[in-house]
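Data availability (excerpt). The following record was deposited with the supplementary files.
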Amino acid sequence: KQKPDPIIKSPSVPIYHQLKINKEMYNILNNFRQISNIENEKYLFSIKWYSKFLITGEISNRKHYITHISWQQMTNLLDQFHDEVISSQYGIKVVQTRDELDSENDLKTIKRFNLGDTRHLSICMMMMQGFSELTIAQMAGHTDIRTQSHYSCHIGDFQRSYSGLLAKSILKKMNIGDNSGFDSFTFRQKQLLSYSNRDSSKARKINFGYCHSDNFPNECFSKDCVFCNKFQIELSKLSAEEFKGLKMKISKLQDEIQVKLNFIKKYYSTAYKKKNDTIDTNISDLKELEKNAANLNILMNREAMIKAHLTKNKEI
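Predicted structure:
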């Protein structure tokens, strides 16, 4: 953790020794500790663990790191992984920039990434999930809330990237007839739509496709039928007017996404103005943040779903 500037005398973020994580993350970390035989080590990436990958004598040159590995050592290990595993074992070319990626076959090339990328993405993801500013500060090692403010400027780019990649993932699954295209959705968001091979002979025909509900409208959970898990978009029979309607839905979703993003960005960019003893204590503000973050994720999933179907429609 960075030490506060003694001249500015900015208040330090209190350090918690325990932070809650979900069960899945706990199992991943626990399995890693067991496989690496570091159950009794204080640090996840200890020198004892790192020594398994070293040339004899390397550690002796870094005496100031005696318990855990440095940023540079982790970077060296990541580079080694790119070269010896991704490139040598899997035959995937590791490139330095996005311009070098093979756009026609995303399995042939991969961009080399650094630890700063993962850190940046993690902070943006926590913001988009509505984590409190204090939790993010502790996870990121910020001793001053102001340090994390500039990350909020990048969540718009992150959102666009996320929606675009999710749309590609859904489309790819649609093309191979895989009905797990919405695995990243919550239970109530899953859309088993146009590639679910449902029998439409007894379904109710409405705009954009068919309603497969046996207990309409008691099974509806969305005001817009297109986003209901009982609805199936009929891509092959979309009229020009319906195609235009789906594009208008994307435009409306993007406007709603921007509203949620603006709220989240404002929340984090102004968090440093709070008094130290009020950080993470205003329950109503945190509830509003969590609500906006939850709605943002629903909207992003819906945007990706519609984009995937519009692309699929063009292919048909």
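Summary of structural features: Residues 283-315 form the longest helix (33 residues).
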